[in-house]
Amino acid sequence: MHFDYAALDLKIRSDLPEAYRNTWTKIASPGNWWSGEDRVAIISEVRAARDCDLCAKRKLALSPFSVMGEHKVKTNLNDVTIDAVHRIVTDVSRLTKDWLEKCVEQGLSKEKYIELLGIVVAVISIDAFHRAIGIENEKLPKPIDGEPSHYLPSSIVKGQAWVPIIPAGAAKDEELDLYDGQKVTGNVLSAMSLVPDSVRLLKSLASVQYLDAKEVVNPSMNGGRKISRAQMELLAGRVSSLSACFY
Question: Has residue 114 got a pLDDT over 80?
Answer without folding.
Answer: yes
